[in-house]
Amino acid sequence: MLDLVEEAGCLPHVILVGSWAEFAYREGKLLGGFDPNIRTMDVDFLVCNLRRPTPAASLVPLARERGFIVESDVMHGTTKLFDPSGLEVEFLIGKGGSGTEYALKTNVGVTAQSLWHTDILSRESIKVPCLGHLVRVPTPEASAVHKMVINSQRADKAEKDAAAVLGIWQYLDRQKLDEVLKALEKKEFADATEFIRTHGLEEP
Hints:
Layout: H1 2-7, E1 14-17, H2 19-27, E2 42-47, H3 59-65, E3 69-72, E4 79-82, E5 88-94, E6 103-105, E7 111-115, H4 119-123, E8 125-130, E9 133-138, H5 140-150, H6 158-168, H7 174-182, H8 186-198
Parallel strand pairs: 2-5, 5-7
Antiparallel strand pairs: 1-2, 3-4, 4-5, 6-7, 8-9
Helix pairs in contact: 5-6, 5-8
């Protein structure tokens, strides 16, 4: 998958988020001793900027050439890629303005699902070596805080996300965690601190 995204010229313009970002933390030796428990074949990329790269990339045609199955959601048009190993790749982008649009066409060459709170991830991102590529990921602290903020909205995935936060908690830098928390909006901060209280985690 990373080979495809880099070949299309898109790797500098996306952030690997979700469970597979934790895989990148391990591969990049970012957190000593951390061993993620990845139980999903879903890979999520957050598109950094709607209008980058310029000119627009041709990710979908290249994916088809490389043997990927490409699907477009019937209702909203969001793009999904399926690689031969079974990975299911989706693309996300931050909501803007009134936030009424479910999906947005991007210059990465895909239609991405638009979500709130993704700025938590994009504000604090770093590059790590992963499988021969330099991959952009959120900092572990930003990734954990994002999961805390949205946990109450995640329905059947809330328990899995909470377990991921608890699993990485001891490896987080408390000063960096505090900085991410302080940058949150008021409601986001309240949701994150409620998660910390509910799960018996110490305040940073």
